[in-house]
């Protein structure tokens, strides 16, 4: 997947993130609890193509809402979902 960048989510991403989660059959309940601070988005150009959340509860983190657009499903070599998960879980504090 060329030219994709992962960056912190912004409040203006909310509607697109909700739509992406719905398309991926993931729940949106509780999304606003820690959005956008706990989330990153993946963009290819101006298009938002992925999202991942890491909600923090004390020293514990809950990986949440990892989703990519359907056109990127099955990309084993570039694996955008894995990139999003690594980006979020690397933010966890060491125990």
Automatic annotation (TrEMBL):
SUPFAM superfamilies: Acyl-CoA N-acyltransferases (Nat). This is GNAT family N-acetyltransferase. It comes from Sorangium atrum.
